[in-house]
Write a structure and sequence with these properties.
8-stranded mixed sheet; 7 helices; 14 strands; about 25% strand
């Protein structure tokens, strides 16, 4: 097995189907491998901070996608080059599909069939780019940060991910010296209530949600989930700190097939739009 495979310590006991399909691995890598990943992550943090004027930024998400990462000579020399290479591979995707197989068959049976039927197709998978509808599926692995916190603030409240996303994932690399509060992942259950959205994909009627689980922002920890209307999650407010919140984002999407679900937006304006479309 690839020693950079983030799923190497996966166990079925880490998997949950409710309130939506997801799993959490509390320790993804052996200590020595993780230490190498964290050491080189400081180079990525420096790169992102130099690329952006972060002095006055408060808790802002910055990241670099796989395609751009592979173009940066300084970053090619890090362990993250091999990490991203593997986590944008068909081998990695197939392992995720196997883990989520049963729930994927419930939520998106046609997508599951496509994973299996087109697996050897030359247009099966590619690294996400500007043009993505010429392949069945696209994949990305994006090292990133949330900038330091000048004033306590939320990273992002309860929301769902883009409806073109099938799987999403996060890998946390908390600095041992970071003693700040917040930045934790929160899992919500809509309990089959009607949910409306606003903005990018934020839940509008938050009172209809029940927070059922909180996973602390920590080191060497990951979470992966099957994206759907039920996959409502958010990040708790971060307290003031000079430390960045270090996380790598994983995304497997399809632009070839239809959107997996529709985001219904609440409010009088959207109600009027529906009425006049009839």
């Amino acid at each position: 097995m690839n020693n950079l495979n983030i799923l190497q310590n996966f166990d079925k006991k880490f998997y949950f189907s409710k309130p939506f399909p997801y799993f959490v691995i509390e320790k993804c890598f052996p200590d020595k491998i993780y230490e190498m990943l964290f050491k080189d992550y400081t180079l990525i943090i420096n790169y992102l901070e130099k690329k952006n004027d972060t002095k006055n930024l408060n808790n802002i998400r910055l990241q670099i996608n796989s395609k751009n990462f592979f173009k940066e000579d300084a970053l090619k020399k890090t362990i993250w080059y091999d990490f991203i290479k593997y986590h944008t591979s068909k081998e990695f995707l197939n392992e995720l599909v196997n883990i989520f197989n049963d729930d994927l068959n419930i939520y998106y049976p046609k997508i599951l069939s496509s994973f299996k039927n087109y697996n050897n197709d030359k247009n099966f998978l590619k690294v996400r780019d500007k043009i993505n509808n010429n392949h069945k599926f696209v994949i990305d692995c994006q090292p990133g940060i949330n900038t330091s916190v000048i004033k306590k603030s939320n990273v992002r409240g309860p929301h769902v991910d883009n409806p073109v996303e099938i799987f999403g994932g996060l890998f946390y690399l908390r600095d041992d010296n970071d003693i700040s509060d917040g930045g934790d992942l929160e899992i919500y259950d809509s309990e089959n209530r009607k949910i409306y959205f606003e903005g990018k994909a934020e839940v509008k009627n938050k009172r209809c949600l029940k927070k059922v689980k909180t996973y602390k922002y920590g080191k060497n920890k990951c979470i992966f989930f099957l994206n759907s209307l039920k996959t409502i999650h958010g990040i708790s407010a971060r307290s003031e700190t000079n430390f960045t919140r270090n996380l790598t984002n994983f995304a497997i999407e399809t632009y070839f097939f239809n959107r997996l679900f529709d985001i219904e937006r609440g409010g009088i304006k959207n109600l009027l739009k529906k009425i006049f479309k009839r």
